[in-house]
């Protein structure tokens, strides 16, 4: 990227008020080569003719080595607990609170300005509305401060809800209302996409493709693992029983979601005027007359090794009728009765809605059903006396309503209206188990049922599902995508490491208009530690936030620049990962923001970070001082980590990975300069692509920055040998030494005579 396009945050100025009416300005400078300072005159903060407080920006020529690629604008904020590290990050992201005003000082080329562009500026530096994209990510949990505003063109990616909400909220106010379960799912999906795209980069930290992902469907209306489920034909071919059981159940769960979607449409009561009573009446009369109906009743009533979901089984029915003791001896009879009552109620509603007389095509069949129901009560059911008496009352009311309905429909007689009202009162008391049985029968109709003693075996019939979806208005193109998902599910395992298949499932489901499918789907990482998950969250959230910002760019945003705020990004990481973070994580972040200029500000509690950071890039905060210091530490780069962080963690090397590689590269480079017969400079070396002048400056900078005296001295000796001003002069000095040694020898021989 061309340097002239870079926008850099130079400093933050916080304006507050103390006891006096005069404002107090606190300054934090982020760059080693530019410093913002207050201008004092006669011991007071100088004001210009407009009454604005004057500041000066001082430039200092500081040679900087990029940490990776183009990233050299890196600041690490450290300090005591409570010194305000997170506060500074939030001030950059959000601005000031209360009477506090925050000014961000940006630089592009030779131009400096303050942001935001306020109507009344208190400071003399020109103001402008331009700034880079701003992304914050934190692994720390912050207590709500009540301050929810975020600057335009900025995202707090610490909570994935904010990334989802960015596209839905023009003001980018935190608090977008989204189901937490869906947010977790979308975040995990985003992580899977990230691993697939960046797996070759992130493997230097963790090989997430070997960790694996578990794919599940969740919901109250999904079937149970049971021996009563038979294998689908495609699964019969698999040799491994564990795979057969897992994949078979997973595919049936998937189809169950589609079946439930169909059932919810067919039985919806949101708008009674739109209920298709005749369609449902036809459907259930056909069910009742089918030879399979007894198996369906039996399946619903099975209590042991139950396959059917709770909502479609004896478990749900027990919840509906807690006063009835359902058991193996009476459940099937109750299910048949509730199904009959459901059909009769459908008939009543159909007649009223259609205004048909007794000559309607269902009249004779419903009359027969009523007689059969009345006759069955004469049998010795395993019902209590109270249960039988209550059923008789219900049947009497049905008979009265049925007769008056036929006789009084067209003259709207009082008896007809009152009779229906009485029936409706009865129906409201009994409709819960009736509806549950009706839906359960619909659910089981998508399976081939085979009686097996007490049990009923179930085998899914996928073609019935596809046909019903088409009948309910799902386009053929979408049904084909649903079939693609089915084929992908056959390729899954209990733990999945094929991220291409996972990504295909995700992308295909995103094209489907059935929301229940996405809501039921769950992806879970297997075997990830909290540190591994935290690391993945940080990278994937930065990537997702970048895409969200680029989809929706407000005015005033320079799209070539990103300011990344990483608050305690090392939290929860093992020290060995902290040691490698600069060397390994920065290249990943650079890749995420490919071809964009990055400025990164990090806060940390971990001194381990400092071993990889040049002194001028460290900002130290103290609770006592109002000024922000960067001279708290001596040379940190390449410093022994045990000196910076006295702890008992096991570390492979005693300095940060970036520092180690830089020092190793410097040793190699200086040896190459000294010994012409050396093997040369490795392609991955820090010095490989640099000009001769930059190679020399880089070596000098590293030697000056190393905090370990022994290493620094060794490097300096090599540097002196490599960069003597003239090789001929070396030979001349050697000749002089040889001649002097010869003269000395001659004098010694003369004196001995």
UniProtKB/TrEMBL annotation:
ATP-binding keyword on record: yes
ATPase AAA-type core domain ranges (all copies): 478-610
Coiled coil: 381-408, 723-753
Species the sequence originates in: Streptococcus suis
Pfam families for the chain: AAA_21 (PF13304)
Gene Ontology MF, one: ATP hydrolysis activity
Protein name from the UniProt record: Predicted ATP-binding protein involved in virulence
Annotated GO biological process: DNA synthesis involved in DNA repair; double-strand break repair
Swiss-Prot/TrEMBL keywords: ATP-binding, Coiled coil, Nucleotide-binding
